[in-house]
């Protein structure tokens, strides 16, 4: 009699444990499917223009890297301007929000890399090996070297605007807006 009672007790524990595991697995599966698993603030989803961003505490709003620590609260709770995050730029920012220029004393926000502008001052954010930018798109005119704030491409809207942007003047004589 004690053996059958013990065997029944063990079987009951197995059934209860299996049922509890099934409920837990179903809960986790549902949370994953609905995107409700806890993600830490600042988790970096892709923003609407496929740039790495900063996820606000509401877990729905994603802002561009350059909107973090810009003295404007872009998240409802203001977590993008918290002192802990903004106290010692760029060291206090998560690495995915920062692009380090070839000159180690300079940095830019990650979404400023490959934007066509010379944000680093030496074009390392546009042409450097760490930048890995795609070639100029159809909205850009390729010429190198470029003068002023651009690196290897000039926006076509600046073609034939009466201002030299390419050292070769090709933006004024060859390029069509």
UniProtKB/TrEMBL annotation:
<keyword id="KW-1015">Disulfide bond</keyword>
<dbReference type="InterPro" id="IPR002172">
    <property type="entry name" value="LDrepeatLR_classA_rpt"/>
</dbReference>
<dbReference type="Pfam" id="PF25241">
    <property type="entry name" value="LDLRAD1_C"/>
</dbReference>
<protein>
    <submittedName>
        <fullName>Low density lipoprotein receptor class A domain containing 1</fullName>
    </submittedName>
</protein>
<feature type="domain" description="LDLRAD1-like C-terminal">
    <location>
        <begin position="134"/>
        <end position="173"/>
    </location>
</feature>
<keyword id="KW-1133">Transmembrane helix</keyword>
<dbReference type="InterPro" id="IPR036055">
    <property type="entry name" value="LDL_receptor-like_sf"/>
</dbReference>
<dbReference type="InterPro" id="IPR050685">
    <property type="entry name" value="LDLR"/>
</dbReference>
<keyword id="KW-0812">Transmembrane</keyword>
<dbReference type="GO" id="GO:0005886">
    <property type="term" value="C:plasma membrane"/>
</dbReference>
<dbReference type="GO" id="GO:0016192">
    <property type="term" value="P:vesicle-mediated transport"/>
</dbReference>
<keyword id="KW-0677">Repeat</keyword>
<keyword id="KW-0472">Membrane</keyword>
<dbReference type="InterPro" id="IPR057430">
    <property type="entry name" value="LDLRAD1_C"/>
</dbReference>
């Amino acid at each position: 009699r004690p053996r059958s009672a013990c065997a029944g007790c063990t079987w009951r524990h197995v059934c209860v444990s299996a049922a509890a595991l099934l409920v837990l697995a179903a809960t986790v599966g549902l949370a994953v499917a609905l995107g409700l698993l806890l993600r830490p603030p600042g988790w970096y989803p892709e923003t609407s223009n496929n740039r790495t961003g900063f996820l606000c505490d509401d877990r729905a709003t994603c802002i561009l890297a350059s909107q973090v620590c810009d003295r404007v609260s872009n998240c409802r709770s203001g977590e993008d301007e918290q002192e802990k995050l903004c106290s010692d730029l760029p060291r206090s920012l998560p690495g995915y929000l920062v692009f380090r220029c070839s000159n180690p004393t300079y940095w830019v926000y990650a979404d400023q890399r490959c934007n066509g502008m010379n944000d680093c001052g030496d074009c390392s954010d546009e042409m450097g090996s760490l930048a890995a930018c795609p070639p100029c798109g159809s909205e850009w005119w390729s010429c190198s070297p470029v003068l002023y704030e651009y690196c290897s491409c000039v926006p076509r809207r600046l073609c034939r605007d009466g201002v030299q942007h390419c050292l070769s003047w090709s933006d004024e004589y060859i390029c069509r807006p």
